[in-house]
Amino acid sequence: MKPSDLRGILGYTTRFRDQTFVLAVDSAVLAGDQAGALLTDLSVLRSLNIRLVLGFGISRFLRDLAGRLGLSISDDQGMGVTDADTLATAVLAAGQVGNRLLEGLSASDLPAAVTNALVAHPAGILSGTDHEWTGRVERVDHGLLADLLGRGVIPLLPPVAYDGAGRTYRVNSDQAALAVATALKAAKLIYITTSRGVRGAGTLSGQFSVEEATAYLARHRSELAPDLVSKLDHGLRACRGGVARAHIINGLEPNALLDEIFSNEGVGTMIYANEYMAIRKARPRDLPALQRLIGESAELEQILPRGREDLAARMADFFVYEIDRNLVGCVGLRRYPDEADGVAELECLVVASAHENQGIGRRLMQFVENAAREQGHKSLLALSTQAFAFFLQKGGFREGTVSDLPPSRREAYEASQRRSRILVRDLG
Ligand SMILES: CC(C)(COP(=O)(O)OP(=O)(O)OC[C@H]1O[C@@H](n2cnc3c(N)ncnc32)[C@H](O)[C@@H]1OP(=O)(O)O)[C@@H](O)C(=O)NCCC(=O)NCCS
Known about the structure:
7-stranded mixed beta sheet; binds coenzyme A; Carbamate kinase; Aminopeptidase; single chain
């Protein structure tokens, strides 16, 4: 990590302070190489005063234990039938995993407590089959969890739950995490599993609104692994139940948890309950994010590099596109009042690569076009080396020549080696 990355992280600290994140870790992740590092990363989140609840799965440990004990079990991750032997083994496995987590958290000086905050009832007879010791989470002891969280303790939630008569049931860990996240109105429910969800499977950069995720699931349900369908289903229900974000990340990848939380683009799949999207005027505090966005594009020679001073002086002419208070696009509108009153220039149109092809570039282009028209300009220029086809095909621009440029711009153009294509949009 570069020291300058800290600036990016600072933006999240006030946003997440005292928010609750519910994490649900699959047993395959806890059995893997990254388990220790993952627990250490929890101390980063705690140091930012993020309240954490940690749910966990046990299937991998349950199967190992059953193998060692020579038992034949019927574990279906708390969804199918749980017979008495499976329940007894599940209780042992839950104790084993809980202990492992307590050890890891102790090593990071993080106080934690295994709880009985999940109250369950029997799943009962489904399609004619008695599910025996499989339970459904009936309610969450909100007071108990809030109390622990208020004291800085991380509640641990095993996938076993209890009823009022003191009986134990095996419950599904995805469902348990969902119940807790909605009861606590968590800011995030994060499933830490062995895949990045549906990221990279022809989807919109792994970030979905509830509507998009619902449509995606309806189209692709039969092609996806059942475990992933469960995570998406539960994530969607969480978002519909008041949780702001549900994430699916690959806990076998190093740093996945922090990379997902502390970057706009993330590394997994995210479903967001409410989208805050807006184009607004740039403010001085946007300067670092603008510099980053423009700097990345300038490195690829897509646009001209901008110095900090130049950019700071021009902030009043810039507009930014925000998603969920993160800056993902920008555009500038340059005027030439002293030399060419009717002409303005659209400049520095950049969309973060993770957010491309979502219509943001077009919206920013349209926005600036409207602003130029409102200001009484007759034409809008754009100069581009790599995106000229975008302006021609998506923005109604036509090819122009140097004679379309105001004198000072022509001078700069001729002095530059970039040989950008000149595009003109008539605003009449
Ligand atoms: C050009 C840019 C702003 C487009 O942003 P975007 O948010 O991805 O654009 P949209 O989602 O609104 O539009 C996507 C459409 O434009 C097309 N498109 C994107 N970049 C293009 C390019 N360089 N040339 C031609 N077409 C392009 C896409 O293929 C897509 O077409 P489709 O709708 O027919 O599938 C973005 O790619 C970018 O930041 N590029 C680098 C900076 C740059 O060159 N800026 C222009 C100089 S000021």
